[in-house]
Amino acid sequence: MIGEKIHSYEITEHLGRGGMGNVYKATDTMLGRDVALKMLHPQLTMESQFLDRFKKEARVLAQLLHPNIAVIYNFIEQGGNHFMVMEYVEGTNLDDLLKKYKTLPAGFVVPVFIQVLEGLKHAHRKNIFHRDIKPANIMLTPDDTVKLMDFGIAKVGGEQKMTQVNKIVGTVEFMAPELLQGKDASAASDIYAAGVTLYELLCGKLPFVADTDFNLMQAIMKEKVVHPIKCNATVPKALSDIVMKALDKNPAARFADAAAFQQALINAFPNYRNINMASLAAASLAYAQGGPATRFEKITNAGMETRVETWAKPLSALEHSKEHVVKNKKVYLTGLLLLICMFIVIGLVKNKKPERETADTGQPKPQDKGGGVIPPPDVTQGSNPVVDRREPVTEPDKEKAPEKKEPEKVKEKPGEVKSSDKIGIKPAEEEERKEEKPAPPKDVLIMSKVEIQLYLQNDLGNAPERQDIPVTFSLKNNVEYKGVTIIKQGAVARGIIKLGKVQTDVDINSITAANGQQLNLKAQRGHGRRNEITSNRNYTAIILPGVRLKF
User: Fold this and answer.
1) What CATH topology corresponds to 5-87?
2) DSSP 82
3) Nearest to 104 by CA among 200, 228, 202, 199
4) Rounded Cα gap, residues 244 and 113, in angstroms
């Protein structure tokens, strides 16, 4: 798509990919300004519900003209593809700042959220509810303006539901309890999501975590939230209380609207009106010791995505843990007994060690196997202060001097560091012994995007259209990260290609790492023209941050 022209918009850069489409940076050749082009996935245009949702997002955004909301300029169609022309927002989102600094200080968060709630007030006055407020959807521009992004699943109050029965739409971690129970979105559910976002920014972790989405839903609906001030002692009590009010499980007990939420922040912190970027680094350094594990240490490739989830009532995390312990109590008891036995054996070995050392440092035997007198090896170290140091330097010692090396080889104990000096082992031999030791295991945590180059192995000349075609790719060169080869040349990656009449979609799913672990991948370019899909064509895929490899 890079270099193509859609009406008067020339595409210059691929910005990202979401559940419904790709987003590109483009230049409006008529007005000479940068815009964001959001293109619906070609295969989704065949399904009316996705096209209707895409058009609905354009209609919703068209009603929201506010400095704290990314605005829409146009909605166009070309070559069977549908595009939304939106304001290009330059800057960084709060999700990226949270990854970098782990927690954000109150002096930074409060003025940011005053602007967030200003934009939310405007949307709620239009009876539009965002339904997906989270750090990734809040942008901060270089001039310290906050933009509320991605109204893709927003809902207009009173309109007919587009979601199927027993389905929920949104990011589960930020959803209010009433939404998980099947109730409609409201201003109160947006306020709850804003409260979760504020909690995560201040604490570096979410109020609820679980091993599955089912258990996470149960926790959101039933478990109590730990006060932010208990997770991070630097959070002011007044701000902790405001967050807890926004997170009340009863919608009626939350702030009446976004304006009331905003006013509570202004009243509690009248001096926090300007965004101070310089405060981020200092606060992060002060909090580095003993801070809580963030959700970014837990998330691997996909992270928390806006998605549709089927809901069913599961066991709670606590009940699940109890059931697991009861079922496997024999395993736990056996492990405990083995651990106790191991400590007992270690204690016995340590108690016997001094006896061996005493036996070794006693008076030397007068003769070795050849009948010569051997001086005690530890006398020169002063291990026995009552022994006369002049005693070993005697006539017998001088007479048998040429035979010292051979007896010392007999006396040498394996593992002694200084034995090489006594028996004449060369430094090169010592180095060989060191190299024979196995290398310690390596634990590699990928902290940034890693691009890998692949080429397609399949010939798709007679492949059917509009079907998911499993394909394989080969790695062109070794992939190294911080001096460690994490994927070897020739490794096979797997993916799916769907052919259209003009456009194609490419998904590269996984590849085998050097340690045998399967790594999830993301295609850097998710689609292209039909005539470009040929065997041996080069493709670029990305390993996302957060992957941990053990070698």
Assistant:
1) Phosphorylase Kinase; domain 1 (3.30.200)
2) E
3) 202
4) 15
Instruction: Tell me which architecture the domain covering 92-318 has in CATH.
Output: Orthogonal Bundle (1.10)
SS3 445: strand
65: amino acid identity, one letter? L
What separation, in Å, do the N-terminal and C-terminal C-alpha atoms of the chain show? 39
Residue 364 burial (C-beta neighbours within 10 Å; 0-12, 13-18, 19+): middle
List the beta bridge partners of residue 520.
510
CATH number of this structure's domain 443-550: 2.40.128
Structure confidence at residue 164 (pLDDT): 40
Q: Per residue in 331-349, pLDDT tens?
A: 778 888 888 888 888 877 7
- What would the two tokens of residue 273 be? 């009106």
Closest CA relative to residue 83, chosen from 127, 42, 39: 39
Give the helix ranges, DSSP H, for 47-176: 48-62, 94-101, 106-125
Contact by Cβ (8 Å): 420, 408:
no
Residue boundaries of the structural domains of the chain = 5-87, 92-318, 443-550
Give the alpha-carbon dihedral of 276, 280, 282, 283, to 10 degrees.
110
Partners of residue 484 on adjacent β-strands: 481
CA–CA separation, 183 and 175 (whole Å): 11
| Separation CA 43–CA 327 (nearest Å) | 47
HSE value, Cβ hemisphere, 13 Å, CA-based, for 211: 8
Kindly report whether the global pTM for this prediction surpasses the value 0.70: no
Locus of tokens 């109730």: 183
Average pLDDT over residues 75-103: 88
Contacts of 147 (CB under 8 A, 6+ apart): 68, 69, 70, 89, 91, 119, 138, 139, 140, 141
3-state SS, 477-503, equals: CCEEECCEEEECCCCEEEEEEEECCCE
